[in-house]
Amino acid sequence: MIDDYQYLLLWDDRQSAQSLDALEDVCRRQWGPDAAAHLSDALSVLLAGRYIRSEGGHWRLTDAGLRKQRSVPRPAIRRQQKPHTQAVGPSVEGSSARESGAVNASAIEPLQPQRPTPLAPSGETFGPAAVRRNHKSAREASPRPRPPSECDVLRRLIAYYIDCVRLDERPSAVLYGNDYNRQFISISLHEAWWAERLGETIEITVPLRPAQSDFVRNLARAQQEDLFVGYPLFALPPDADRSGLIVPMCCIPATAEQEDTTLRVTLDFDEADVNGDWLQKQFRTGEERRAFLRACGLIDPEEDSGEETPADFLRLPDAISGITTFCGRALVDQPLDPQWTRPIGDFAAIAKGVHNAAVLYLGRRLVYNAGLVSELRRILASASDEDLKKTALWHIFGTGSNGPQTTAPLTEQPPSSREAAVVPFLPVNYEQEQAVRTSLQSGLTVITGPPGTGKSQVAANLLANLAVSGQSAIFASRNHKALDAVVPRLNEIVPNETILFRTKNPDTGEEFTWRNAINQILAAPVDAGAEVDHTYASAEIHDWLGRRNSLLEVAETWTVLERELGQAQRTWDDKTSSLPSAVVDLVRLGEHLPAGDVLREMESGLGVYPAAERSRWGLWLLRLWWRLRHWPAVRSRLPAIEQSAAAFGMALPPPEPTPPFVESLRAVVSTLCGHAALHELHSRITQLQTQAGSLRPLTDVLQEMELVLERLRERAPGLLHACLRRRFSHLAPQERQRLLQMRNTLDHTRDTAIGEGTRIRWQRLFQDQFDLLIRCFPLWAVPSLSARHGLPLAPAIADAAVLDEASQCDVASAIPLLYRTKRAVIIGDPNQLRPVHNMKPGRNRQLLRKHGLLTPSLAQFDFLQSSLYDLAAATPKAGEPVLLRDHFRCHPDIAAYCNSLVYKGQLRVLTDESRLRRPKGRKAGIAWTEVTGAAEAVTAGGAICQEEIGAVGRELNRLLVEDRFSGTVGVVTPFREQANRIRDWAESNIPADLLRKADFIAATADGFQGDQRDVILCSPVYQPGLPRGAEWYVTSKDTRNLWNVAISRAQALLHVFGNRQMCLQSDVNHLVLLAKLSLTPPSYDPGKPVFESMWERRLYDALVAVGLAPFTQYPLAGCRLDLAFRDARLDVEVDGERFHRDAQGRRKAEDLWRDLAIRGAGWTVMRFWVYELREDMAGCVRKIQDRLTSLSERVTPCREEDGTVTDA
User: Fold this and answer.
1) Which of 467, 459, 516 is closest to 484 using CA atoms?
2) Is 1024 exposed, middle or buried (0-12, 13-18, 19+ CB in 10 A)?
3) I want to staple 120 with a disulfide (CB 3.0 to 4.6 A). Which of 349, 528, 579, 993 is the partner?
4) CA distance 756 to 950
5) At how many degrees (to 10) do helices 370-382 and 811-819 cross?
6) 842 with 308: CB under 8 angstroms?
7) pLDDT on residue 570
8) Geometric angle at alpha carbon 328, from 326 and 329, rounded to 5°
9) Is the peptide bond prior to 488 cis by the omega test (within 30 degrees of 0)?
10) What are the distances in angstroms from CA 158 to CA 152, 166, 820?
11) Which alpha helices (H) appear in 1036-1120, and where do they start and end?
């Protein structure tokens, strides 16, 4: 065996550094090809232990490595003859270091059989394993870290994430009978061989027999497999169709060393777990699995208490108790007793059921995350500091011990993206456009938004803009539905062209490989006109964008003017409302007002007149001083004041420097100063009105903007198509030759006959030339765990990573994607579902301590507590997340639930209710059918309610069978068993074609993530008799996000079937809110006029006086129309009074986007300034009458058809 530490001997003390190729050559010459093949794994272990460091692609020993090197013995490699002591198992760190020589099976002497009897007739018996307990030393468990540098922290984090990912996935194993004594052997255990606490390892000595020589040989040769002890066993005997199989119920990772005729096996219970394969097949539902794990002590209700409870690792006695409880009927002829296990014996005669037996087997520790761990290890082993700093990783992880450091400059970013001209390939609102613009400019952008706010629309627009600006991107998500929401949307922009490639089509299973891509490039004819067409399309789009930006500037000027004029007008109205009209007229004219310097001098002199003094003599002296010092100036200005006062109907007593006269004069001057300020305000209003008159009316700007946006929508696909054509036309002959080399290289790397070193060099050649290939295919969509199937693991090969549903993504799985790109865009909603982990807090703390990361300054990187979104949003480099607040999916009443529950009123509901599909005869929004029943506990965990199942079933029958509702329908409930029974009812009572047509699904909130239905039926199961654990799940604040996801799946109608009275009487916020919203009357009552300004009321009264009946504050497309004529679809807006209504922070320039949305719904917008209404109310009314007359000739009144709401 070559131990990981023995790889330190590859360095000569006199050599400063070694390249990876040099190390491979030395290793191959000295120890053979197998040792060289495992060099990368060993380097990752040595790097994590801080024995080596990376410098510019070379590796150097640290001081600790030099010291360790002196104590490492030279490996005794014998190629023809078995060494006396031979290590044959994987190391504790998961690295592979195995002997390549064959084992001499004849040297293994069988031991004498002892007490146990075989499980099957005619089987062999053999001796039990000896047991020894060890404890990990404090130094081993938590190595003392050196003061970290920038990249040292990142490397330690990657090593920590490797361990976390390994422990977060349950081991899975199914052992087949024809592999008996090859892949697994039977062992006997007759002592207490399990760990009692974290950090304790158990060592057992297993005697070997000649029949097990194939197993020992396979163990020595194993490269991709790990060693485990499995106990107890579920067995199926062989028959005519199968060879029989054994499924270990508990899997305990192990390492082994051969010593003569025995194996010394070390068990690591810190990583022991229940067999994931057996768990999935044995228990149908998640509730059943959780109940079983709870019985085994692997789910602890106090796991968040901060203590390392027994739930932090598998205690075998607890697991045996749980298995006996749940699988007792399947036990074969004796109870489970881990201190007295029985050998298998003859596998051909094994009985079906659960056996008190143990096996030592070879299997893979990881199935789903094996590729992720492999890539993380490769990054850790081969990435230099320079590599890491030029990737998107550095924007998030570029920290030292005291916080973020300077990130790499965006030197690669082309000028076009710095200018951030956003082409609207798909319709966008103001905030969506800002999100795209920020993403084009920043090294790290975080975009967040509640459900239905257009995050997928942002992603599609961003990817298209990256492509036309000559940049590449990888779009990824753990959730396939997120890819399905973006890929078709983007690829539909240009018909018959693929813009965003998927490495594997989820519908057909067809793979698009780089070999296919190269063949497509080489086969493409030269398009001579591509460059000209691209130049023309770019110039045309640039012109239209320029016109759009000019219109936006006009709109911004217009609305800034509106804000100022409105505020000035409101101040004027407030100040003059109590003044006589004659006085107001004089103030407007300003002819009788004193000059400004007169008023200022009078205020100055009167302001210092002594009013009171403690000493009478002191007061007399002060007033004498004022009379001598200020009275002459005051007296000289009196004629002007008296003249103005007389004009405004005010009189002054005879002038004398006495207190009564001074007080009278002071009051008159104060009034005149107020009139002067009002006159200045009127002058400013007149100036603003003149300026407003010189501006293009916003309605004209709106009409032209509609034209410009329409032209952009028409021309944008042409620009994208020209870019797609142009990508192949730029290839020079030399580049085509490189592509041919790359294609052939890909074939050679799959040839098993070539050496590992040659394969690695050819892979590097492919990576070095990859920039040419991704230039031709710039956009890729991949599941986050499958990027390795289509994209080489090399630093910064693409410009941007766009990671969707980031709140569900753990940090570790994003690292390989961030390593492949230069920038990152993180999209998610922290108020929806979070990553699900199996690893327990105690194990996590142990790993943090092991890697020197258990410190508050690095707490944000915690694997269990931080999602990718959490980490990115907390990174200073990202700045404030870009918030998308405009919601377009749900009926306003449904959106109000989410808005109040989790989003603190930030959501702006712009749903076009005319497009919602609701059942005939039902109002859209939230409905509640009262169901009083009883909750029942189920064996699997959770609860069901038969009464709610029946009520939901009857409603499904009414919707789909009786009414033939043409929309989509789903059922959501907190418990999987309730969902299963509702699904079973539907499949038994409703024709399958109707369920398919309705796209029917019954699931918990987890099953609906990223999905939606027109109608959602909700079964809360909140009834009397709800078990305590299930009640916590329904009522806990920790499940608030699940309710947010569940309710927001409904677009037109959320219909709840439950105990409303019980919900209202509870203190559970999310249940009380849901029940109250179902009782709330419609948010809009046309019989009660509502006004937000005085001038809206005055215009309304004037319209009513001529026989018109407008609606006030009418809801449409998420907006409130000041005055609306619904049948004519005319919106009348009063401008100049709107500045005070912007409570949600909407920028006034967004009025343009608002009006576009209204016009898009088929309405006409008319706007009137307040001064227009004041000066000519009758004329404004006539204009409205004329417009109504013209519209009535061509507008069809609003109506409802076929159960579909066509208007509010």
Assistant:
1) 459
2) exposed
3) 349
4) 64
5) 50
6) yes
7) 80
8) 115
9) no
10) 10, 12, 15
11) 1040-1047, 1060-1065, 1069-1079, 1094-1105
DSSP 8-class letter at 1197: P
Q: What's the average pLDDT block by block, 10 residues per block, for the chain (1208 residues)?
A: 74 67 76 72 70 72 78 54 37 36 34 39 53 55 48 91 89 88 90 81 88 89 82 86 85 88 87 84 70 72 36 74 81 83 81 90 86 92 90 84 36 40 88 92 93 92 94 90 89 89 74 80 81 91 91 82 80 85 88 83 78 72 80 84 86 83 85 89 88 80 86 92 83 82 71 55 69 87 86 91 94 96 95 84 85 89 94 90 90 90 85 86 91 86 90 95 94 92 94 94 82 93 89 83 90 95 92 89 65 86 92 78 88 68 43 70 82 88 90 54 38
The SS3 assignment for 692 reads helix
- Residue with the two structure tokens 């020992």: 216
Length of the chain: 1208
DSSP string, 1066-1078: S--HHHHHHHHHH
Q: Which two tokens stand for residue 227?
A: 């060693």
Residues with Cβ within 8 Å of 17's Cβ and at least 6 positions away in sequence, in order, are 55, 58, 59, 60
Cα 1205 to Cα 961: distance, rounded to the nearest angstrom = 21
> Which tokens hold the place of 164?
């976390």
Q: Which H, E and C letters describe 983-1047, residue by residue?
A: HHHHHHHCCHHHHHHCCCEEECHHHHCCCCEEEEEECCCCCCCCCHHHHHHHHCHHHHHHHHHHH
Residue spans of alpha helices (H) in 169-285: 213-221, 276-282
What burial class does residue 788 get, using C-beta atoms within 10 Å of its C-beta: 0-12 exposed, 13-18 middle, 19+ buried?
middle
Q: At what angle do helices 581-589 and 659-694 cross, to 10 degrees?
A: 70
H-helix segments, 792-931: 811-819, 841-850, 868-873, 892-901
3-state secondary structure 464-519: HHHHHCCCCEEEEECCHHHHHHHHHHHHCCCCCCCCCEECECCCCCCECCHHHHHH
Pick from 881, 949, 928, 1164: nearest CA to 1054: 928
Q: Residue 590 corresponds to which amino acid?
A: G
> What's the pLDDT score for residue 760?
63
CA 1177, CA 1105: separation in Å to the nearest integer?
12
SS3 of 866-878:
CEHHHHHHCCHHH
d(CA 1044, CA 918): 21
* pTM score above 0.70: yes
**Nearest 10 degrees: CA dihedral of 75, 80, 86, 88?**
110
| Environment class of 387 (CB within 10 Å of its CB; exposed 0-12, middle 13-18, buried 19+) | buried
Taking phi first (over 0 means left), then psi (-120 to 50 degrees means alpha), and beta for anything else, what does residue 470 get? left
- 592 three-state secondary structure: coil
Q: Tokens standing for 128? A: 């039990």
Please say whether the beta carbons of 1123 and 1110 come within 8 A.
Answer: yes
Per the listing, tokens 């690095």 go with 858
Contact indicator for 1188, 1106 with CB cutoff of 8 Å: no
Query: What type of residue is 1055?
Result: H
């130049």: which residue's tokens? 535
CB atoms within 10 A of CB 836: 9
CA distance 758 to 747: 13
Which domains can be identified in the chain, with CATH numbers? 112-137+167-377 (no CATH), 504-730 (no CATH), 914-1079 (3.40.50.300), 1094-1205 (3.40.960.10)
